Amino acid sequence: MSLSATIHHRLPGFTLDAAFSAGPGVTALFGRSGAGKTTLVNAVAGLLRPDQARIDAGGAVLTDTARGIFLPPHQRRIGYVFQDARLFPHLSVSGNLEYGARFAPRAARPSRARYSEIVDMLGIGSLLDRRPGALSGGERQRVALGRAILSAPHLLLLDEPLAALDEARKAEILPYLERLRDLGLPILYVSHSASEIARLAGHVVMLDGGRVIAAGAAGDVLSDPATATALGQETGALLAGEIAAQDPDGLTRLSTPAGSVWVARPDLPVGAKLRLRILARDVMLATAAPEGISALNILAGKIERIDPAPDGSVLVRLRLGDDAAILSRITERSRRALDLEPGMPVHALLKSVSIAEIAPG
Ligand SMILES: Nc1ncnc2c1ncn2[C@@H]1O[C@H](COP(=O)(O)OP(=O)(O)OP(=O)(O)O)[C@@H](O)[C@H]1O
């Protein structure tokens, strides 16, 4: 199942002109406030009738303005979860879930076993008799996710599902979103948070001013300097790694396409796969292999490009081996002092490396 969309829509003072596709797993829609994310998601859901558009999902044409096709929202097989759960306050949790199931076409209506499986997956079994007013924000979102999944959708649209939650509730719900992702359904996930995206998304579509400015694998988009304006201090790259060894001094060696990286020991076995996030502001550069320095993680690479960053610093993109790229944010003064140019070999000193995600399995 996949989604492909080309949408052109004019609002007073704003034009959405975007084309993108999304396959199974999470595709993050990312961009600053006012970039057009909600307008785009509403067009996919059929809540907005675009001026010109073609939107296909799993072979079905949802919108094709050239042929006068516009399926109403309830016929699109799309589950939509908003920032605020929007549960029916007068129905119990089970009433809300059953309402979702009623939207599934007869042939796809969830069985009792499927219903229980989803209730268990979201950890809401003990809440079934309660009304939404008696649930925490995180619980309400889990019920809203359950209601959406039980409608047997071909596609899930999650519009900032964690935005209204505090950090503790966010941390509580993220593992459920990971399980949801692993169901293999395409999920379009609108978020402002680079760390959520680093944790959940396989693909990223970056919007700015109603246009797609970068799209592709999360690692490629997040290390694309074009995305720095939207990401600000959160600009940083992803690096895939696998636990290679647990050293006796408490550090763990990861093998990555860029070479070995050491992190404080995560409680995981050798062979476990991880996704590391390396913020551009945490990467220093040296033109010669540094000696007498306490930094553990020093990777050799080559400068691919140098771009001015919005805050007056510069972003240096380094290629590290065939399969990895990271960004370093340095001052223009340092760039000049080191005479950095594309093509130069350099050493990257990683001041900090965080684990963005532990791959399932
Ligand atoms: N019904 C409308 N009429 C006129 N302008 C609108 C309408 N809806 C949205 N806009 C404008 O379209 C632009 C995109 O809005 P949209 O809500 O899609 O952005 P967004 O990326 O989802 O923002 P946020 O992250 O703040 O939710 C904004 O400039 C907004 O003011």
From TrEMBL:
Q: Which UniProt keywords apply?
A: ATP-binding, Cell inner membrane, Cell membrane, Membrane, Molybdenum, Nucleotide-binding, Translocase, Transport
**InterPro entries, per the entry:** AAA+_ATPase, ABC_transporter-like_ATP-bd, ABC_transporter-like_CS, Mo/tungstate-bd_C_term_dom, ModC_ABC_ATP-bd, Molybdenum_import_ModC, Mop_domain, P-loop_NTPase
The Mop domain sits at 292-359
* A cellular component term, taken from the record's GO annotations: membrane
What the entry lists under SUPFAM superfamilies is as follows: MOP-like, P-loop containing nucleoside triphosphate hydrolases
Q: Where is the ABC transporter domain?
A: 1-234
Under the heading Gene3D superfamilies, the entry gives: 2.40.50.100, P-loop containing nucleotide triphosphate hydrolases
Quick check: keyword Nucleotide-binding in the entry? yes
Q: From the UniProt record, which GO molecular function terms apply?
A: ABC-type transporter activity; ATP binding; ATP hydrolysis activity; molybdate ion transmembrane transporter activity
**Superkingdom per UniProt:** Bacteria
Please list the coiled coil stretches: none
Tell me which NCBIfam families the record gives: modC_ABC
What protein is this chain from? Answer: Molybdenum ABC transporter ATP-binding protein
Q: Could you tell me the gene encoding this protein? A: modC
